[in-house]
Design brief:
- This protein is α+β, with helices and mostly antiparallel strands and 750 residues long.
- The chain folds into 6 domains: 2-77, no CATH class; 84-151, OB fold (Dihydrolipoamide Acetyltransferase, E2P) (Beta Barrel), CATH 2.40.50.140; 158-224, OB fold (Dihydrolipoamide Acetyltransferase, E2P) (Beta Barrel); 245-490 and 554-626, no CATH class; 496-548, no CATH class; 640-742, OB fold (Dihydrolipoamide Acetyltransferase, E2P) (Beta Barrel).
- It is built from 17 helices and 34 strands.
- The longest helix is centred in the last third of the chain and has 30 residues, at 606-635.
- The model is unreliable at 8-15 and 730-750 (pLDDT under 50).
Length: 750
C-alpha cells in the first residue's frame, strides 16, 4: 500500500504543469502595476523545474512577435507605463510643448510618446535633460499625458564624469564639484570606456556604506586637451549641439536676399563694432547730426540688425532647432550657435562689402539723449567696415590705423557725438552702475590657454551698448502700440527683504541704504559712488549685486529696474537670441514689411515660450560660467604653491570664497586652511571672525593666499591663507598660515 502511494506521488511530481496561454500572460502583465519578470510569471502559474525552460521559450517568442516588450529580465505590455514614473524631458516642439521618456525604460522597442501637461505659473521652468516624478494617464494609442508632481534634484540618476580604470572595472570622477559620493562602475557596466573618457552614467544602486554603483550609458571621448573642457559643460547642461538634418539642409538652401520691396540702405556707411574674438556680426550702426532746426543738437541714429526672420520662418526646421537652443552659448574655444553656420556666419552675418538683408531702426534723439521718434524699415545694407572695440577707441584717442583713419571724421566722431547725448539720458534716469569685472580667456591657435585677464571695458563698448538699448526701447514702444504681442525683457524691483538685509549690512559701514519698499536704481548708485576708490568698493558692489532680481523674458511688462526703463525688449541679436527673433516677427507684422512676420492665426503660447527661453538663458549662463572656471583652473594648474593677491567675495561656515585680482579666478579657502582658531560667522556683516586671535575676513577684504590645488575637470581651486593678510579685530599677534604654524599640514578647524 505504501509503495502504491509512493509511485502515485512520484508520477504526480513528474506530470508537467500546463503552460499559461499567451492571452493569460498578456492579461497578467497588463494588470500588473509595473514590469514583471519570468520569476513572477512562473510563481503565479505554478511552473516549476524543467517547465521553466518552455516558459522562457514562450516569452521569447512573444517578445519577438511584438506582443510584449522585453527589458533586462523584465517584461511588460508594449506601451503600458505605471501610473507614476520618473521621466526625463527629451524635446520641446515648436509650440513649446514638452515631451519626455521614462528614465528606466530599458526595453528593445521605443517608449511611448509622453506629453508633459503644463501648469501655467506653477513651479520652475523645465528644460531638456531635467528629470521629474509624474503621474501618467493614457492619451490614445501608444501615447501618455504626464502631470509633474516633483522635479528631481540635480545629480539624481544621470551623472557626468571622467572614467578612471581600476581592478574589476572603474570609478567615476564627477564633473560636478558638489557631488560627494564615490561612484563605482563594474566592467560589464563600463560600455568599453577607456581611461580619461568623458562618460554619462546612471546610478543603479546606492548603499548606506561604500560607493554608489553606476552604469555607463554614453561615451563622449577622451578629455586629454584643455580645449575639450567646454564639452563637459555642453553635456552636463544638456545643451542641444547637433542640428537636425532638416535644419542643416534648410540652411544650405538659403541664398542671398534681393532688394525687392526692401529699403535700399547700401549707401549708408554702416559699420560693425565687435570684439576681436567675435564669431558673428549681427548689428551695425551709423549716426548723423539731425538736420531738423526744431531739434538743434539732436541726432539721427540708425541701428541695422541682420534679418534672421527672412530665413527662419515660424514652425520650420530651423525655427524648431533655434527654439530648442533658445540662444547661442559662448565658450572660450567654441560657440554652440542658435543657428547653423551657413546662417550665423554666413547670410545673417553683416560682413563688410557684402549685401545683407536687415531690419533697421531709424531713431531721432534730442541733445539730452531723449528718444523723440522712431521708424522701422526692412532693408538691404552693405557694411563699410568690420571694426573692433580696441580699434575704434584707439582712433578716438588719437591713434587711428589704416582702416579707421578715413572713417574717423565722417563716421566715428558722429557716433561718439550721439553717444555723448545718450550718456546724458542714461545718467538722468539713474541706470544702476555696478563696477563688475568679466574674465577673458586668452587662447592660441592650437587651443592652449595663454592667460586669463579682466576683459577690457572702453567707451567704444559703452557706445554700442547705448545704441542697442535705444533700439530695444524703440522696438518695445512700437509693439506696445500695435496689435501684436511683445516679448519684454523685464527686470523686477529687488525683493524688500533683500534690501532690508543690505540695509543692515551697510549700517555696519555707516552707509545710508535705500528704503526696502521704494528703492530706485539711483539710490543704489549713490551708495556705490560713496565707496568708489575706497576700501569697501568690492564689498558694496558685491552686496548690491546680490540684492538684485534676475532679469527674465515675459509678455507681461513690469519694466526694467536696472536700466530704469518703463519698457524694454530685446531686438538687436536675433542671430543668437530667440527672444529677438520673436520681436522681429512682431515688428514685421506691425509695420506690414512682408513675409516672415507674426501670424495671428498661429499664436504660440507666450507664457510657455518666455518661460522656456528664460530657462535656456540660465542654462547657457551656467555652462559658460562653469567653463570659464575650468579653463581658469587649467591655466593655474602649473602655478601651485604660488602666492596671489585676492579679495574675499563670500563667507560661509565651511570657509571663505576668494577672487584673485589678476585673473578673476574664484576659489575656496577652507576653514582647515585658516589660522587655528574658533571662527564665528556673522551673516549680517558678511564676515568670519576668529574668537581668540581676532582675525576678521569680510566680503571685499584684500587677502594674500597660496594656491594649494586645482582641478580643471570640476573647475575647483583651493587656497591657503597667508600670514599678514586680512584684518584683526584688536589682536594682531597671529596671522600665520596653517602650513607655517603646524609643520606642513593644517590642524582641523572648527
Amino acid at each position: 500500500m505504501n509503495e502504491t502511494k509512493a509511485r502515485q506521488r512520484q508520477t504526480k511530481l513528474k506530470r508537467p504543469t500546463p503552460l499559461p496561454t499567451e492571452e493569460q500572460i498578456r492579461e497578467f502583465i497588463r494588470t500588473s502595476k509595473g514590469p514583471v519578470g519570468k520569476r513572477e510569471i512562473a510563481r503565479t502559474f505554478g511552473i516549476r523545474g524543467p517547465d521553466k525552460i518552455a516558459l522562457k521559450a514562450l516569452m521569447k517568442q512573444m517578445s519577438l512577435t511584438g506582443d510584449i516588450a522585453k527589458g533586462k529580465r523584465r517584461f511588460q505590455k508594449i506601451g503600458v507605463l505605471p501610473p507614476v514614473d520618473v521621466l526625463e524631458i527629451t524635446s520641446i516642439d515648436k509650440d513649446g510643448d514638452l515631451f519626455a521618456k521614462p528614465v528606466n525604460w530599458g526595453f528593445d522597442v521605443p517608449p511611448p510618446a509622453i506629453l508633459i501637461v503644463a501648469k501655467p505659473g506653477r513651479g520652475p521652468a523645465l528644460g531638456i535633460g531635467d528629470r521629474v516624478l509624474a503621474k501618467l494617464s493614457p492619451a490614445g494609442d501608444d501615447a501618455y499625458e504626464a502631470r509633474v508632481t516633483k522635479r528631481m534634484p540635480a545629480g539624481s540618476g544621470r551623472l557626468l564624469g571622467i572614467f578612471e580604470p581600476i581592478a574589476g572595472g572603474g570609478r567615476l570622477r564627477p564633473v560636478d564639484r558638489r557631488y560627494r559620493h564615490d561612484v563605482s562602475i563594474s566592467a560589464e557596466n563600463s560600455l568599453g570606456a577607456l581611461a580619461g573618457d568623458l562618460v554619462a552614467v546612471d546610478i543603479i544602486a546606492s548603499r548606506a556604506h561604500g560607493p554608489q554603483q553606476a552604469r555607463v550609458v554614453e561615451r563622449f571621448g577622451r578629455m586629454d586637451r584643455a580645449k575639450n573642457l567646454s564639452l563637459i559643460a555642453i553635456h552636463a547642461h544638456g545643451l542641444p549641439h547637433n542640428f537636425s538634418d532638416e535644419a542643416e539642409e534648410q540652411a544650405r538652401r538659403c541664398k542671398a536676399a534681393t532688394l525687392g520691396t526692401r529699403t535700399d540702405l547700401r549707401e549708408v556707411p554702416l559699420i560693425t563694432i565687435d570684439g576681436e574674438d567675435a564669431r558673428d556680426f549681427d548689428d551695425a550702426v551709423w549716426a548723423e547730426a539731425d538736420t531738423d532746426p526744431a531739434n538743434a543738437g539732436g541726432w539721427h541714429l540708425l541701428v541695422a540688425i541682420a534679418d534672421v526672420s527672412w530665413y527662419v520662418r515660424p514652425g520650420d526646421a530651423l525655427d524648431r532647432d533655434a527654439y530648442a537652443r533658445g540662444n547661442s552659448t559662448y565658450f572660450p574655444d567654441r560657440v554652440v550657435p542658435m543657428l547653423p553656420e551657413a546662417l550665423s556666419n554666413g547670410w545673417c552675418s553683416l560682413k563688410p562689402k557684402e549685401d545683407r538683408p536687415c531690419l533697421a531702426a531709424h531713431m531721432w534723439i534730442d541733445q539730452h539723449g531723449k528718444l523723440l521718434r522712431h521708424k522701422f524699415v526692412r532693408g538691404l545694407m552693405r557694411s563699410v567696415a568690420r571694426l573692433t572695440y580696441t580699434q575704434v577707441q584707439a582712433a578716438i584717442d588719437g591713434h587711428p590705423d589704416d582702416t579707421t583713419a578715413p572713417l574717423l571724421e565722417p563716421i566715428l566722431k558722429p557716433l561718439y557725438g550721439a553717444f555723448a547725448s545718450l550718456l546724458k539720458a542714461r545718467h538722468e534716469r539713474g541706470t544702476l552702475e555696478l563696477d563688475l569685472i568679466e574674465r577673458q580667456i586668452l587662447m592660441n591657435h592650437e587651443g592652449h590657454i595663454k592667460g586669463v585677464v579682466p576683459r577690457a571695458r572702453y567707451d567704444s563698448h559703452k557706445l554700442i551698448e547705448e545704441f542697442m538699448i535705444t533700439a530695444n526701447v524703440a522696438a518695445a514702444e512700437r509693439l506696445e502700440n500695435s496689435a501684436y504681442p511683445c516679448v519684454y525683457r523685464v527686470h523686477d524691483r529687488p525683493d524688500p527683504e533683500r534690501v532690508a538685509g543690505l540695509k543692515e549690512a551697510l549700517g555696519t559701514l555707516d552707509l545710508p541704504a535705500p528704503n526696502p519698499t521704494s528703492a530706485r536704481p539711483a539710490d543704489f548708485n549713490r551708495i556705490l559712488m560713496k565707496v568708489r576708490g575706497g576700501p569697501h568698493v568690492h564689498l558694496v558692489n558685491t552686496l548690491v549685486l546680490r540684492t538684485q532680481a534676475q532679469a527674465v523674458y515675459s509678455h507681461h511688462n513690469v519694466g526694467h529696474f536696472g536700466l530704469a526703463l518703463r519698457r524694454y525688449a530685446h531686438f538687436t541679436s536675433p542671430i543668437r537670441r530667440y527672444s529677438d527673433l520673436l520681436v522681429h516677427r512682431a515688428l514685421i507684422a506691425a509695420e506690414k514689411l512682408g513675409d516672415g512676420g507674426w501670424n495671428p492665426m498661429q499664436d504660440p503660447d507666450l507664457e510657455v515660450i518666455t518661460s522656456h527661453i528664460s530657462m535656456t538663458e540660465r542654462r547657457s549662463a551656467g555652462a559658460e560660467r562653469e567653463t570659464v572656471d575650468r579653463f581658469t583652473a587649467a591655466y593655474l594648474g602649473d602655478k601651485v604653491d604660488a602666492l596671489f593677491n585676492g579679495r574675499v567675495n563670500g563667507v560661509s561656515r565651511f570657509g571663505v570664497f576668494v577672487t584673485l585680482d589678476e585673473t578673476g579666478a574664484d576659489g575656496i579657502l577652507p576653514m582647515r586652511n585658516l589660522p587655528h582658531d574658533f571662527y564665528n560667522l556673522n551673516e549680517a556683516q558678511h564676515s568670519l571672525i576668529g574668537q581668540r586671535h581676532g582675525l576678521v575676513l569680510r566680503v571685499g577684504d584684500a587677502v594674500v593666499v597660496r594656491l594649494l590645488e586645482t582641478d580643471d575637470i570640476t573647475g575647483s581651486i583651493v587656497f591657503e591663507y597667508v600670514e599678514g593678510s586680512g584684518r584683526t579685530s584688536g589682536n594682531d599677534n597671529l596671522h600665520r598660515s596653517g602650513r607655517q604654524k603646524h609643520g606642513g599640514k593644517p590642524k582641523r578647524r572648527r
